[in-house]
């Protein structure tokens, strides 16, 4: 067998095959680490906004939201007093999703739809959720953590 003839490795598997399989396994683990177990993804907070008020509660309607173009973030208020922050970049091709309407954010480029309460992909071609930012409400301000 090829592996035995070379005097090393697993019988029947050459060095190239072993390295290729190892690379695939490592890539799979790295990609799996990008999302949470519920299918959502956690976003990396853009530099310069951590700890800053990026929106006012009054600017984010219940059942809707507000896109903050400067930071490419969408803030939603799915139910009264509950605020969420997601990247406004569609995971399909990076187009900016629109402001939520009726609990859904839509990507104008290819029609992907995302739930305003979770960022979960409701309709493709996007395959994954919008990445979520941690936030807190302090007074009337919404702050990205």
From TrEMBL:
**Short name of any one Pfam family annotated for the protein:** Rieske
The cross-references to CDD domains, in alphabetical order and at most eight, read: Rieske (cd03467)
What keywords were assigned to this record?
A: 2Fe-2S, Disulfide bond, Iron, Iron-sulfur, Metal-binding
Q: Where is the Rieske domain?
A: 52-144
InterPro entries, per the entry = Rieske_2Fe-2S (IPR017941), Rieske_2Fe-2S_sf (IPR036922), Rieske_Fe-S_prot_C (IPR005805), TAT_signal (IPR006311)
The name of this protein is: Rieske (2Fe-2S) protein
> Which organism is the protein's source?
Nonomuraea mangrovi
């Amino acid at each position: 067998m090829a592996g035995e003839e070379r005097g090393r490795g697993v019988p029947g598997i050459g060095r190239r095959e072993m390295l290729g399989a190892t690379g695939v396994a490592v890539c799979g683990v790295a990609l799996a680490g990008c999302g949470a177990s519920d299918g959502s993804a956690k976003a990396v907070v853009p530099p310069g906004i951590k700890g800053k008020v990026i929106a006012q509660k009054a600017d984010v309607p219940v059942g809707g939201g507000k896109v903050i173009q400067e930071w490419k973030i969408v803030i939603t208020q799915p139910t009264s007093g509950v605020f969420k922050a997601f990247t406004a970049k569609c995971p399909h091709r990076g187009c900016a999703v629109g402001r939520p309407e009726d609990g859904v954010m839509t990507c104008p480029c290819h029609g992907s739809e995302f739930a305003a309460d979770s960022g979960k992909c409701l309709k493709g071609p996007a395959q994954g959720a919008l990445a979520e930012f941690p936030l807190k409400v302090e007074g009337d301000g919404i702050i990205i953590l």
